[in-house]
Specification:
Blueprint lengths: L2 H39 L3 E2 L9 E2 L3 E5 L4 E3 L5 E5 L5 E8 L4 E8 L9 E5 L10 E9 L6 E11 L2
Parallel strand pairs: 1-10, 4-10
Antiparallel strand pairs: 2-3, 3-5, 5-8, 6-7, 6-9, 9-10
Length: 159
């Protein structure tokens, strides 16, 4: 093979690699900006008192079950839809003194990035020390790990 042709091929391959690299970096930066914008504009809402039939929402998390002020036993099905980082929905069940009775994660089954997906989880716990408590459904910020998109649902415990 002649030397000028090999040199031209090598230069072309390097140029294409550099272009691909810069395209990937730009896409990554755009994705980070979108995540930051999403996290900055999300309001956090608690459940309105006396609204047991409302779907509870934070903008990116909508909880359809349980309803506000529901009386529950030592288990409850938490369901709804969410558009959250890596489709990971976080939850915790707290008694009236904010002691954690149960906590964990579940996956929102979203068809694609940036779309809502449904979630369903049924945690169980020991008998609580209080007759009332809350269920929290939320996301953690990809930027700084803080709780975002918090939905707080007041519940009563059937002791």
């Amino acid at each position: 093979m002649n030397k000028p042709l090999v040199t031209a091929l090598i230069i072309t391959a390097l140029a294409m690699s550099a272009a691909l690299f810069f395209t990937m970096v730009q896409r990554h930066e755009n994705t980070e900006k979108k995540v930051e914008q999403k996290n900055q504009i999300q309001p956090q809402h608690s459940i309105p008192e006396g609204s047991p039939t409302a779907t509870l929402t934070s903008g990116n998390i909508m909880v359809s079950s349980p309803k506000a002020n529901a009386t529950i036993g030592n288990s409850i099905t938490i369901s709804g839809s969410a558009r959250v980082f890596e489709n990971t929905v976080n939850y915790r069940v707290l008694d009236g003194k904010r002691a954690v009775l149960a906590e964990g994660t579940t996956i929102a089954k979203a068809p694609d990035i940036g779309q809502f997906g449904t979630f369903l989880v049924t945690p169980t716990w020991s008998t609580p020390a209080t007759i009332s408590g809350t269920i929290e459904v939320f996301d953690y910020s990809a930027k700084d790990g803080s709780v975002i998109d918090l939905v707080t649902i007041p519940v009563g415990f059937a002791l």
